[in-house]
Design brief:
Length: 450
């Protein structure tokens, strides 16, 4: 009994102390200097107020209230999305003509090379006309020449270009001498640019080459390049060409950038057919003019008499006679035996058209020119009287000896010479014991001056 009472008193005291502790702050129960790390949580974040037009959703027992999210600001437009669509730059115009040269056919900076000239024998002597000619692709015309042509066009690099559409032209039956290609194109660096206004003109730029052309046995043309260009070029025009109208012609490829390795060139075209034998060998001319080296016989021209009725006319007739040319032709020996002899060409006094044809033919034959070549003049002159007697002993040599032509006098009666390589022997003629009119055919051949 006493033990139970004691336990009840102790339990009551303990409960009394616990109630007092419940009424004090928690810190009052801790030892001095001891504090808790507990702190109050911040108030919950509330959603911004909704617009009046949008009702706020209400919570239901089964679902919590929906808190609307803050609207995000509109993103700034991307500069890339505002950029205009990229446009390709316009294509670069590649030069195809300049400084007297140009490219024909092909495309871009590739084409057939043509050179220009204002020389009269190339432009039919039309004042101010420019003649453009392609160039034969000859042995020796290599990439170094193509480089010069491209530099004249304004490029840095150049080489030969091979393509059938460029190196060949379709046959043209109506082509004339003015359509044929030139050859032996040769260029030299221009070390003496013009120093005055007089020298800078087209004529001044071509003066030196023009003098050089007169010293050659065949026509030489000058490319129409300005006098201040880095190069000066000229070319030849020969009767026996390295190519015909169709080619092969020079093709050129130009560039502002260095070329990659070039493909191998195509196989060489077949060689052109051999030219016919020399027609000049079947002709012997006496007098003056191109291709003539033997002087005219002195006894064929009679000096004017002191008592001539018209001294001035007599002097002009004598001057025309001494400036004339005559010819002997190789014909079959009229005596037979299969040999050949030279026969004197008789005058043609009754047919002016035939005389003109004979003069044109003999001039071309005398220098082996083709029929299409027309850069010279052929003129029919008054015929020469055949001497009735031998020349006097004091006559200046050489002298004409009629006895040396016994039965060897040839008269052209008609016909047409070969269309490409004309010769008098291709025409119709007779060989007799004398000239019917007692006179010899006289003519003159001369180059035209440009």
């Amino acid at each position: 009994m006493g033990r139970e009472l004691l336990c009840a008193i102790i339990l009551a005291a303990f409960l009394g102390l616990d109630q007092v502790a419940e009424g004090r702050p928690r810190t009052a129960l801790l030892p001095p200097g001891k504090y808790t790390s507990w702190h109050k949580s911040p108030p919950p974040r509330r959603a911004p107020p909704q617009k009046a037009s949008v009702p706020s959703p209400k919570a239901t027992p089964s679902s919590p209230a929906v808190v609307p999210e803050s609207p995000l600001p509109a993103p700034n437009p991307s500069p890339r999305s505002q950029a205009q669509p990229r446009q390709n730059p316009p294509p670069i115009a590649l030069p195809r003509e300049g400084n007297g040269v140009r490219l024909v056919g092909g495309s871009g900076a590739r084409g057939r090379l043509e050179v220009s000239s204002v020389d009269g024998w190339l432009n039919e002597y039309e004042e101010g006309a420019v003649a453009w000619r392609p160039v034969c692709n000859m042995v020796g015309f290599d990439d170094s020449y193509a480089q010069i042509m491209c530099e004249l066009l304004g490029y840095q690099y150049g080489r030969l270009y091979y393509d059938d559409e460029v190196n060949r032209r379709a046959p043209n039956d109506t082509a004339t001498d003015y359509d044929m290609p030139v050859e032996n194109l040769d260029c030299q660096q221009n070390l003496s640019p013009p120093t005055s206004q007089i020298d800078s003109g087209p004529a001044g730029g071509r003066r030196l080459l023009g003098r050089r052309a007169l010293l050659r046995a065949f026509p030489v043309g000058t490319v129409d390049i300005p006098a201040d260009a880095p190069y000066r070029c000229e070319f030849d025009y020969r009767s026996q060409k390295s190519c015909d109208y169709t080619g092969p012609l020079v093709g050129v490829e130009c560039s502002f950038l260095e070329f990659p390795p070039a493909p191998p060139p195509p196989p060489s075209p077949p060689s052109p057919p051999d030219a016919p034998p020399s027609r000049k060998a079947a002709l012997h001319t006496y007098g003056s003019g191109m291709g003539t080296y033997d002087p005219l016989e002195s006894n064929l021209c009679v000096p004017p008499a002191a008592d001539a009725p018209d001294p001035e006319a007599a002097a002009e007739e004598y001057a025309a006679c001494t400036g004339a040319t005559r010819a002997d032709l190789v014909v079959a020996d009229p005596a037979g035996g299969g040999g050949e002899v030279f026969a004197a060409l008789c005058a043609i006094d009754d047919n002016e058209d035939l005389a003109l044809l004979v003069a044109d033919t003999v001039c071309k034959q005398n220098v082996d020119y083709p029929a299409s070549y027309s850069a010279y003049d052929s003129t029919v002159l008054p015929s020469l009287q055949i001497p009735d007697a031998d020349a006097p002993a004091d006559a200046l040599p050489p002298v004409f000896k009629s006895g040396a032509y016994a039965n060897k006098w040839v008269t052209i009666t008609g016909g047409e010479p070969n269309a490409n390589y004309p010769a008098l022997q291709q025409m119709e003629y007779t060989v007799g014991s004398s000239c019917a009119n007692g006179r010899l055919f006289a003519f003159r051949c001369s180059y035209r001056s440009s």
